[in-house]
Amino acid sequence: MVNKKRMLGLVGFVGAGALALGLAGCAGGGDNGGSGSGSEGNGDGELTTVGFVAVGPEGGWRNANEQAIKDAFSQEAGFDLKYAPAASPTDQKSQIDAFATFVNDEVDVILLTATEASGWEDSLELAQEAEIPVILLDRGVDASEDLYVTRIAPDNVNVAGTVGEWAVETFPEGASYFTLEGVPGLSVVNERNEGFEAAIEGAEGWTKIGAQTANWTADEGKSVIETVLKENPDLQFIFAQNDEMGIGAAAAVAAAGLTPGTDVKIATIDGTTPALEALAAGELSFVAQYNPFFGDLAVEAVNSALAGDSVEKNIIVPGETFDSPEAAQAAIDEGKGF
Ligand code: AHR
């Protein structure tokens, strides 16, 4: 296959523009870019090869997000997506190995959802030397912005800020609270802490009992909160950085003979259907959507990058919040869950 990146270098701007039209023509329409125009990737009958260094099975949000990417980068839309899930959601080495393989195979572009924020400089430099553009999905990395085209994700600081703003309104006198964090070392964990803490900063009466990772899972969310409640039976509020941990926390609250949503309020981030159902049932009190459906934005960014066009360094995916059983039920009825 003619290497498109090198071809771009030869044909100059006008040719690249023509190529962009070819690529753009294959970008899908619809909610998620999943329904392509049917033309091949680069107009000469060849597919655009995309190496997706992914997290793999992790939870409801991840499943929805990775399926959305697979749907958008379909063959009908002109892509040959090579999916490389990590050996486990915390196994960065398997991701680094997959990344290197994609560079060696000279894919046209690499999509990366990192299992760890640090440790990516060498891989990104390898891709840059090979003139393979890299696009970050969801998670950021601790590396120079010059080493990747863009990061596509909802604004974690802002999403977590909506949780803090709701909490301050809900507890005008302040509250004792505990934070359940995602996997340590992730950009989104730090960004969510930053957004939530900034929103409650300056509000009177807020007491942080503590914070601990529950590794995005319901089981660990339950076991952590069981321990916390033994030592802090008057805990008022739990900020769970994702739905699964929040649902686990609600189970721990109930197991302690307390009523989740009344004795202890729990707010989560993601917006999966189980969380909306728990909010509709009153077990959760607030859910901030972390919108996983950005396959079309990723297709646009890939097409622009391969056409040599400039791309925003951060592409923000919009979302919404749900703050009552009625709002949750309406969201379920409108198919907003996933
Ligand atoms: O990086 C996004 C986070 O990863 C989601 O909020 C969480 O559910 C997933 O595990």
Q: For the report, how would you describe the main beta sheet?
A: 6 strands, parallel
Secondary-structure content class: alpha/beta
- Taken together, the total number of domains comes to 2
Please, what is the average pLDDT? 90
CATH class of the largest domain equals: Alpha Beta
Strand order of the largest sheet: 2-1-3-4-5-11
Distance between the termini: 38 Å
Q: Work out the number of β strands.
A: 12
Please work out how many helical segments DSSP would assign.
Answer: 11
Strand content: 15-25%
CATH architecture of the largest domain: 3-Layer(aba) Sandwich
**H and E order:** HEHEHEHEEHEHEHEHEHEHEEH
Q: What name is given to the CATH topology of the largest domain? A: Rossmann fold
Q: Please mark out the parts with pLDDT under 50 across 5 or more consecutive residues, or reply none.
A: 1-40
Rg, Å, rounded: 22 Å
Bound molecules: alpha-L-arabinofuranose
Shape: elongated
Give the CATH superfamily of the largest domain. Answer: Response regulator
* Helix coverage percent: 40-55%
Structural descriptors:
Rossmann fold, 338 residues, 11 helices, six-stranded mixed β-sheet, disordered N terminus, binds alpha-L-arabinofuranose, 2 domains
Task: Write up what this structure looks like.
The protein is 42% helix and 17% strand. It has helices at residues 4-26, 60-72, 92-104, 121-129, 156-170, 187-200, 218-231, 243-255, 273-280, 295-306, 325-333; strands spanning 48-54, 79-85, 109-112, 134-137, 150-153, 176-181, 207-213, 237-240, 265-270, 286-289, 314-316, 321-322. It is of the alpha/beta class. It is elongated, with a radius of gyration of 22 Å. Helix 1 packs across helix 10 (295-306), helix 2 packs across helix 10 (295-306) and helix 9 crosses helix 11 (325-333). The two termini are 38 Å apart. It has a six-stranded parallel β-sheet, with helices on both faces. Strands 7-6-8-9-10-12 form a six-stranded mixed β-sheet, sandwiched between helices. It folds into two domains: 16-152 and 293-307, Response regulator (Rossmann fold, 3-Layer(aba) Sandwich), CATH 3.40.50.2300; 156-290 and 322-333, Rossmann fold (3-Layer(aba) Sandwich), CATH 3.40.50.2300. It binds alpha-L-arabinofuranose (AHR). Alpha-L-arabinofuranose (AHR) binds at residues 58-59, 61-62, 138-139, 182, 188, 216, 242, 269-270, 290.
